[in-house]
Structures are given as structure tokens and as C-alpha cells.
Task: inverse folding
């Protein structure tokens, strides 16, 4: 369900990236009668390395060209220092602690839907629009709700679960009612030259050698080799550095064993990777911290939900119990092999997002 503008043409800032999603977002809102302003962010990248993929010179040129085609103002803001402080540095620190972070969660919470939203409002806009595949609805009680996008393969509600009753009234997701194929067809219909531009992959600030290469340069202390041990503490081999491994991983361990072994735990205190058999892998419960609820209030008690423990994970049934200090406990109906500290835990009631938090160590 899309929100249509009243007759006085409300102003909306569109976060542009030069890609097909944000370009179609801008085009749709122009067509629907909004007063649209395009805004793009310059984000931190490694000195002397590749540009941040969200704001390469080519992406900047594409976004500026699209704004020109749509006859909308286009501005660029420098968020490099903020991005380094609140996204990149905590990303490095999390890996140093043996966690596996998802910086997109923090980026949406702090960069897009806090700092950028405030900037949009300071420009006199009523809304900030992005190209995310998710939906915003208002229920009969007047509360705002966050829903999955209709395209299950592109749904991005997982990384938006921290949105609140304070931010949702000012957020538009025009693509939430469409599939990716729909969006590319619309881009072609609007004669946008980016209609067949590939989707971005991986984290925007990483180079071609991925997060392992990035950490080797920026946090070499995290890539120190150490022992691979079983649950009895017996040394089975050597690892290349804790960030090279993730919970549930089977391939690449370099261990000869009668049966397959999986990563069970990363132990930063002793710089060890703990492995075990399939029977030893998996947990049926977790706790999470920094929990937020879209409705602005905790669950009333133990509640049945569908839950995701990673961005691409399938939803699974669980019972969630709120705990003090913005924490929760979740028990799954069946053990999961890849519950990973540092990742997001997100709760759903059908397609409606209830909230979520960050998975803690067991």
C-alpha cells in the first residue's frame, strides 16, 4: 500500500546511489507528484584503495545524470568521517572480539534513518525515501508497521528492523510493492540508462579481496594463526586467523578426520577455533542485546514468532521472551546450525516485523 501525497506536494529527499533501485524510487515519486530532492553520500573508503562502492565517481555521475533527467535538485554530502567512526571502526572491533558483525544494521540505524533523515527534515522535507524492498503501513490504531517487501528474494526488512514509531512516519519505500523484475522494467519505461546495471554485492567499503584482506591491513592482530581444537581441547590443526571462519563452516578447515567437522565456536581469549561433528553442531536457543521493537514497546511475554538469524536465512518458528535491559531470549522449535554472535536476530508475525536485536555469545 503506497502513501500518496496531499495536494500541496510534500517534499521528499531520495537517498540516491546511481543504481537502478534508487533511480526508480526517485522517478516513481516524481510521477506521483512529490517535490523530490536527490541526495547522495560520500562514504569512507581505504586511503589509496578503491572507492566506496556506494559512491564511486561513476555512481556519482549516474546519480547526477538521473537527477538531471528527472529535473530534480541533486546534492552530495560528505559522511566519510561519520561512516568511519560508527561503521568501520566497530566492524573491526567486533571481529577482534571474535564476533561476526553485520554493519548494514548499524548503517541503517545510524547513518540513513537517523543522520540522513534529520538532514532531510532540515531541508524542509516531510519524508526520506530509499530503494529498500520493504513496506510501511499504518494500522487501525494509527501505529506504523514495517512489513516485508512483496519480492521475497529481495526483501530487506531484516536490515530495517530498528525503525521506530518516530522514524517510520517520515520514511517511504516505494519499491516495497514491486519485484526486482518490475523495477527493471519500470527503469526501462522511464528511459533510465541504469535499467540493467548490476546489483551491488558485499559490503560497500571492502575491496576486491573482501573482509579478510581488509582486516589483514587494518587489524592484523585479528588474523594471527592459532589452534583448531575439538570440544575436548585436543589440537587438530591450525587456523589462519579467527575472522576467516564462521559458525557452521565446514569447508576450508584443512583437517583430515573420519567424519566432517564444523566450526562450533570462535574463542578469541585463547585464539582458538573449536570444531565438532554434525551431532555437536547447533543450538536451540539464544539471547540478544540492543533489542528494539517497531511498535515501541516490548512483547507482553513469551510470544510465538517467525525469526531470522541472518539476512539470507529462512524464517523459523521460535518462542521469544523479553528480558530486562533491552535483551531477549529465543528458543527455537529445532536446533539451528549457524547461530552466530554479532549477527542480527529479527522477529516477524507473518510479514510484519516485530523488532530484533544482536545475537550474544552463548
Result:
Amino acid at each position: 500500500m503506497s502513501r500518496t501525497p496531499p495536494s500541496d506536494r510534500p517534499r521528499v529527499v531520495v537517498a540516491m546511489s546511481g543504481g537502478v533501485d534508487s533511480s526508480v524510487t526517485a522517478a516513481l515519486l516524481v510521477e506521483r507528484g512529490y517535490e523530490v530532492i536527490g541526495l547522495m553520500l560520500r562514504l569512507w573508503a581505504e586511503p589509496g584503495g578503491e572507492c566506496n562502492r556506494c559512491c564511486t565517481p561513476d555512481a556519482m555521475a549516474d546519480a547526477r545524470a538521473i537527477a538531471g533527467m528527472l529535473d530534480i535538485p541533486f546534492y552530495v554530502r560528505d559522511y566519510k568521517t561519520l561512516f568511519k567512526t560508527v561503521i568501520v571502526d566497530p566492524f573491526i572491533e567486533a571481529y577482534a572480539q571474535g564476533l561476526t558483525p553485520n554493519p548494514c544494521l548499524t548503517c541503517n540505524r545510524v547513518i540513513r534513518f537517523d543522520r540522513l533523515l534529520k538532514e532531510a527534515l532540515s531541508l524542509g522535507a516531510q519524508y526520506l525515501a530509499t530503494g529498500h524492498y520493504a513496506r510501511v503501513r499504518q494500522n487501525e490504531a494509527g501505529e506504523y508497521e514495517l512489513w516485508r517487501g512483496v519480492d521475497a528474494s529481495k526483501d530487506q526488512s531484516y536490515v530495517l528492523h530498528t525503525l521506530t514509531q518516530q522514524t517510520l512516519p517520515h520514511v517511504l519505500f516505494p519499491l516495497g510493492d514491486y519485484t526486482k523484475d518490475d523495477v527493471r522494467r519500470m527503469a526501462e519505461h522511464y528511459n533510465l540508462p541504469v535499467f540493467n546495471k548490476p546489483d551491488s554485492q558485499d559490503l560497500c567499503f571492502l575491496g576486491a579481496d573482501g573482509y579478510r584482506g581488509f582486516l589483514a591491513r587494518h587489524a592484523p592482530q585479528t588474523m594471527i594463526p592459532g589452534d583448531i581444537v575439538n570440544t575436548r581441547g585436543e589440537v587438530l590443526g591450525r587456523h589462519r586467523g579467527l575472522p576467516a571462519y564462521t559458525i557452521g563452516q565446514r569447508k576450508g578447515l584443512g583437517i583430515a578426520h573420519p567424519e566432517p567437522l564444523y566450526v562450533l565456536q570462535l574463542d578469541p581469549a585463547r585464539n582458538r577455533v573449536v570444531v565438532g561433528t554434525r551431532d555437536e553442531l547447533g543450538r536451540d536457543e539464544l539471547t540478544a542485546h540492543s533489542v528494539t521493537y517497531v511498535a515501541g514497546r516490548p512483547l507482553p511475554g513469551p510470544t510465538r514468532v517467525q525469526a531470522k538469524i541472518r539476512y539470507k536465512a529462512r524464517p523459523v518458528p521460535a518462542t521469544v521472551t523479553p528480558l530486562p535491559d533491552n535483551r531477549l531470549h529465543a528458543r527455537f522449535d529445532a536446533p539451528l546450525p549457524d547461530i552466530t554472535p554479532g549477527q542480527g536476530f529479527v522477529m516477524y508475525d507473518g510479514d510484519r516485523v516485530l523488532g530484533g536485536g544482536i545475537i550474544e555469545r552463548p
Q: What stands out?
A: The chain has a mean pLDDT of 93. The first strand starts at residue 11 and ends at 15. The chain has three domains: 11-189, 224-280, 283-359.
